[in-house]
Design a protein that fits this description.
By secondary structure, the protein is mainly beta. It is 4% helix and 44% strand.
């Protein structure tokens, strides 16, 4: 269970640019269209964020499941969308790409 000091947010990047920062306690769907049509749907709720729909062929972003801890990241590379969870108390010291 999260304490008040463990506030989780997620940064959503599209084409390498920060598109939106969301609070993981929200319960919303976000659709992003880096190309010409809606390609990716990201769902937020119950302290988690996940790719719930994507038009990419392999669906690896969906298979990555729910992200619930600071430092976790999932990406839909064909659609160029990255989700990264940030916490006041990240469990990750260093991340490189």
């Amino acid at each position: 269970k999260l304490t008040s000091s463990d506030k989780l947010t997620a940064e959503i990047y599209v084409d390498g640019a920060l598109e939106r920062t969301v609070d993981l306690s929200d319960g919303e769907n976000y659709s992003f269209s880096p190309k010409t049509k809606p390609n990716v749907t990201i769902t937020v709720g119950d302290g988690a964020i996940w790719f719930s729909q994507a038009d990419c062929r392999d669906k690896l972003c969906i298979k990555s499941g729910r992200l619930t801890s600071g430092g976790q990241t999932a990406a839909c590379l064909p659609e160029r969308v990255v989700v990264s969870v940030v916490s006041d108390k990240n469990k990750t010291d260093v991340m490189t790409y």
